[in-house]
Design a protein that fits this description.
The structure is a single chain. By secondary structure, this protein is mainly α. The protein has one domain. The chain is built from six helices and no strands. It has helices at residues 17-27, 31-41, 49-62, 64-67, 76-87, 92-104.
Length: 106
């Protein structure tokens, strides 16, 4: 997947290398590890934690090959195959919302 941008906030920090290391480390994670990290560090603090946890669990159970890929190696074709497969299990609109949820970071 070609990364065209990141949805983020900018903060001042004492160590300008820290954000760079974070994004390099995060983007180098397999998708499953990124889900686990997001769930542990972000999702647990949100009201919708349970629903997000169910979504992440579905990705991990139903699409282990995709979840094993490193984030920066995921292609649009991978996402298209996921969406087509997911649309066989749920309504196409639900698959679209799930894809948007992942794209928008929750």
């Amino acid at each position: 997947m070609t990364i065209r941008g990141l949805n983020h906030n900018a903060y001042r920090c004492k160590d300008s290398e820290e954000p760079r290391r974070f994004y390099e480390n995060f983007l180098g994670l397999p998708l499953a590890e990124a889900f686990e990290r997001y769930e542990r560090e972000v999702s647990k603090k949100k009201r919708g934690f349970h629903a997000e946890s169910l979504r992440f669990g579905a990705w991990l159970r139903e699409f282990p090959a995709l979840c094993g890929k490193v984030i920066h190696a995921i292609t649009p074709a991978d996402i298209g195959m996921w969406r087509a497969a997911r649309a066989k299990l749920v309504r196409a609109s639900s698959a679209g919302r799930e894809a948007a949820h992942m794209r928008d970071g929750g």
